[in-house]
Amino acid sequence: MRKVLLGAGGIVLLVVVWELYKALGPATGVMIGDLTVLPRTTDLAMPHVWDMVARLFEEGGTGRNRAPIWLLVGQAAVFTLGVAAVGWVVGVVVGLALAVLMQRFRTAESAVLPWIILSQTVPLIAIAPLVRRWGSQIELGDFTWENWMSVAVIASYLAFFPVSIGALRGLNSPDAIHVELFRSYGVGWWRTLFTLRFPASVPYLLPALRLAAANAVIGTVVAEVSIGLRGGIGRMIIEFAQQASGDPARTWAPIFGAIAVGLVAAGFIALLGVLLRRYRRGEVPA
Amino acid sequence: MKHSTRLITGVGALAVTALALAGCSSGGSGDTTSTDSADSGELTPVTLQLQWYAQAQFAGYYAAIDQGFYEDEGLDVTILEGAADIVPIDVLTGGDADFAISWVPKVLGSIEQGAAVTDIAQIFERSGTTQVSFKDQNITTAADLAGKTVGSWGYGNEWELFAGMNKAGVTLDDISLVQQAFDMTGLLSGDIQAAQAMTYNEYAQVLETVNPATGELYTEDELNVIDWNDEGTAMLQDAIWADSDRLADDADYADTAVKFIKASIKGWAYARDNPEEAATIVTDAGSQLGESHQLWMTNEVNKLIWPSTSGVGTINQDQWDQTVEIAMDTPNETGATVITEEPPASAFTNEYVEKALAELEEEGVDVKGADFAPITVELKEGGV
Lengths: 286, 384
Prior knowledge:
Chain B: InterPro entries: NMT1/THI5, SsuA/THI5. Chain B: Homodimer. Chain B: It comes from Herbiconiux moechotypicola. Chain B: This is Thiamine pyrimidine synthase. The complex is a heterodimer. Chain A is mainly alpha-helical. Helix content of chain A is 70%, strand content 5%. In chain A, the strands form 3 sheets. A two-stranded antiparallel sheet of chain A has the order 1-2. Chain A has a two-stranded antiparallel ribbon with strand order 3-4. The longest helix of chain A is centred in the last third of the chain and has 39 residues, at 189-227. In chain B, 41% of the residues lie in helices and 14% in strands. In chain B, the strands form 4 sheets. In chain B, strands 2-1-3-12-4 form a 5-stranded mixed β-sheet. In chain B, α12 packs across α13 and α12 (251-273) packs across α16 (351-362). Chain A binds chain B through residues 40, 42-45, 61-64, 97, 125, 128-129, 132-134, 136-139, 190, 225-230, 235-236, 238-239, 241-248, 250, and chain B through 3-4, 10, 20-21, 24-25, 27, 31-32, 53, 81-87, 90-91, 94, 96, 182-185, 188-189, 201, 205-206, 208-209, 212, 280, 283-284, 286-291, 293-294, 381-383.
């Protein structure tokens, strides 16, 4: 209860700061030399919070899909969340598989780990069109690659990284004494993995999963923009931004949607943490 | 043991998938796009790659689908939308599209780097790029840009501006060049004195905005526009591009190209004669632009096409030469030019569009629109 109140208080504080600055700040923004350090307070640069909220209840969309904007944003958010979830699952599976592989074989760790780190230095905008193009050439029987799958792949590309690193640390975290105990009982590697290493890795894994969830959401939104996938928040942000000069408050609607997607994703991980409560000994609350 | 077999199978499956992926990607143009598989009577699948999302800039193609013009020619056309990081010519040369829409100067650079593509129909005869400013800045010609803050989107949208300044003797040192976002907030907030604007899009965005001083929408009387068509530094924009190698080797593809151009021009003629319906067709295709904005765009795009000097799609030698000349001689802020030498002869041809135009004239389609008169579109706040 207290947490909820504090959370709500944080939002209220943000609104108050925004509106106070808008009311009291200089219209031209705060400048140091030629550099603007705080934004202008015009309606164009900083629309009123109530205008942004009011826009959510206005009609939006065109032609056959006219509906209140909150509904359009909600639909887009659900779509984006779905794609991000697929990306997250794929990323977690791949990340865990890589971690297990690296834990099992020291050579694999030396061989793979640098590539995993290197993979994250490739800019997303470079791989997005490539993934789409490769995907469009996949045809297996009745299965055809769709654009949303490319977006999910890009999301998983960002999501697998923290999982593989976090899980590797977690899998290596059991005390030597425990590992040696298992060995002295003649327990096999797989059983050690499932009964000792996985439970021990939970405190490392949960923050990694949270990071992966955030990455998956960001990856999805950016990839949607990058390859122009219809239906999600990313494209909606661009479409609304194109009309930014005419109606600046409207551009915030899909941004709220993106925030909602992030919150739901974070909430899901928190739930996962509750389910895995009994393995979370010694976790530093993050 | 059981587990490890499973692991090995998994790794194996991954490897196979990776190989399949690699195999597919190197497979190149042939497989997904072959046109020869269709028997007579069946529709030939054709994919068109646009430069951006569905919007009235591409009204003719959407209208041709909606009105069944492509089907009449035996084509089943799928339109692929563009996006921030999608380069239409790359999609075309990668074999994922049969035809692509792109601006000529953007493609000239790709051609010099080895892309084998051909401009087979120059749909837009005029350039839609302008430099817009408020009246009080007194910027009416390129020469007036000296000493001003000038916005440009960059990414190949800047060449007409630079060429115009060059011609007027204004160097890049004389102006302060600002990277402009794809909206008009820079101009409205005063950060940019002369902002880049397409007649059919960004210019309308200004007119859809309430002037805080008057409480009413900005009007055209409050704006000055530098039109590169008038300044003599216009470059050719939306054109239909085809794969040069396939044109040379694949008679069916060449035949499809003629049919595709023919039906597309029919679509554009439809958009000329029925701008309201064409705008609705684009909106129904999923464009999120507001109603009045969409109609404005349809009307302005019509102005770039009609009336047509030599029949829509014809590449006029003088305009092509001007585009190439600017692309070779105009340096940007880093001193680079679009291209360093003349493009190969394969860069454009009127062969296919002439066939298409002949057939259209036989059918009685007006391909010049000599008596074209644009409609008047009233923009509403926010373009709705």
